[in-house]
Design goal:
81% of the residues lie in helices and 0% in strands. It has 198 residues and is mainly alpha-helical. The protein has one domain. Helix 3 packs antiparallel against helix 4 and helix 5 (83-101) packs antiparallel against helix 6.
Length: 198
């Protein structure tokens, strides 16, 4: 009986606005995750890429990821607690645009900028995970994703002049790990949405 009650509580998305919004748009999280994994894999299979090219590629990744996050936030409408996703999207779009608008800026400055973006993004992701913790199990993985972003940002800010290969491995690893977490969350939300509609 307790299990039935718990199961029915998990499927009652009407009382969980943030979870409801994310479950409706699970495919957007999946796309963001797959995009991150693709970018990360490209950095490892394309070892001859220059640091500048890598940063431009990363700018494209942040821009597209930001657009997807903004779209998710707008699809969520005025549901309480969705604001953090809007800020994640906004910082991604801003980072992507600035990377393309100022291609003449030195690679070092762009690395510092990417570090700042990751740090801010991570903070908002942690805020979102804390808000979501009352609505979904295993929220610690979302907090972990935010911490990865924060640590990645700090690593770039502390050692922006690290060698190109070290930065390549760091950026690629971050994108793959973060992408995998988003894919995991998307598939979990898809399952929840499917159970709700059946």
């Amino acid at each position: 009986m307790a299990t039935e009650s718990q199961s029915s509580s998990e499927l009652n998305l009407a009382t969980r606005p943030l979870l409801h919004s994310l479950a409706e748009n699970w495919w957007l999280l999946l796309l963001r995750g797959l995009l991150g994994i693709l970018f990360g894999v490209l950095t490892f299979v394309w070892p001859a890429i220059s640091l500048f090219s890598l940063i431009i590629l990363f700018g494209a990744y942040t821009l597209v990821d930001g657009v997807f996050a903004l779209y998710s936030a707008f699809k969520g409408g005025k549901r309480k607690g969705i604001g953090w996703l809007f800020f994640v999207g906004l910082t991604g779009v801003a980072a992507g645009i600035i990377t393309f608008v100022y291609p003449q800026v030195t690679a070092l400055v762009l690395v510092i900028f990417i570090g700042a973006w990751a740090l801010v993004r991570g903070i908002f992701e942690i805020i979102g995970a804390i808000r979501l913790r009352k609505e979904i199990e295993h929220e610690w993985l979302l907090i972990f994703a935010g911490l990865i972003s924060v640590l990645f940002g700090l690593a770039l800010l502390v050692s922006p002049g690290a060698g190109a290969l070290a930065l390549l491995w760091l950026i690629g690893s971050y994108a793959i790990v973060f992408g995998c977490i988003l894919v995991w969350l998307a598939l979990r939300l898809r399952k929840l949405a499917h159970k709700t509609h059946t």
